[in-house]
Amino acid sequence: MASPVLEARSLTKTFGDFTAVNGISFALQPGEILGVLGPNGAGKTTTMHMLLGLITPTSGTISMFGMDLETHREAILQQVNFSSTYMSMPQSLTVEENLWVVARLYGLPDVQRKIDDIVKKLEMGEFRHKVTRKLSSGQMTRLTLAKAFLTEPKILFLDEPTASLDPDIAHKIRALLKDEQRTTGLSVLYTSHNMREMEEMSDRIIFLQKGNLVAEGTAAQIVSRFGQADLEDVFLKLARES
Ligand SMILES: Nc1ncnc2c1ncn2[C@@H]1O[C@H](COP(=O)(O)OP(=O)(O)OP(=O)(O)O)[C@@H](O)[C@H]1O
């Protein structure tokens, strides 16, 4: 098997005497979509923020592309990107201006073609000249996804990428992710509370509960291991134990 593009080893994050993430280890393989599942407060976002270098782990190590995040931060972060509903972008710029800012920050070549391409893929034509402040939440989600795709990352981190999208657009985003995975070998780590989406999208799933990694495998393996009918029932069982 090829080397993983990302490896987290014994990752722990404490806030004061509260342990949000408790010694979890996992790997992301090249071209893999890895779903991170868990009830509210399980430690998903904290984990993602450590992987993005936004917060420092209390202990444990993170490596990507064979490099340690602590010592090769810039080289790694150039090759990854993320999208989250909670991220903010300059509000007074238009959608297209915001994408230009990102392109310039990353020093991308051939910017207008790349922007036109992503605007088309994410069906953003109708609001590409709209001021960001005036976007609906679904439009904002698409802008943050466009920002993430624009830099052509090797790893994409997505925190609830389809949460505020209508079913039609959510379906198209899922298709786009699968397409990018197939054609470019993109690796994706993402969180979602939509169990059907998790089952459909993820090659593998890791399940967090109270900061611990309690299950890992394909959706079918996890369902079978917990003796439940589907992933939703596994989720309910573990969430109610929390
Ligand atoms: N800066 C912080 N200071 C103190 N506690 C924090 C901080 N950030 C997160 N936590 C706590 O860590 C735990 C894990 O939070 P986290 O946001 O990672 O959960 P999550 O799995 O992403 O949940 P959700 O599904 O609600 O987004 C929660 O109990 C949260 O209150």
TrEMBL record:
It comes from the Bacteria. Gene3D superfamilies: P-loop containing nucleotide triphosphate hydrolases (3.40.50.300). It is an enzyme of class 3 (hydrolase). The keyword Transport applies. Keywords: ATP-binding, Hydrolase, Nodulation, Nucleotide-binding, Transport. Residues 6-235 form the ABC transporter domain. Its EC number is 3.6.3.-. Coiled coil: none annotated. GO terms for molecular function: ATP binding; ATP hydrolysis activity. Belongs to the ABC transporter superfamily. This is ABC-type transport system, ATP-binding component. It comes from Nitrospira lenta. The lineage of its organism: Bacteria, Pseudomonadati, Nitrospirota, Nitrospiria, Nitrospirales.
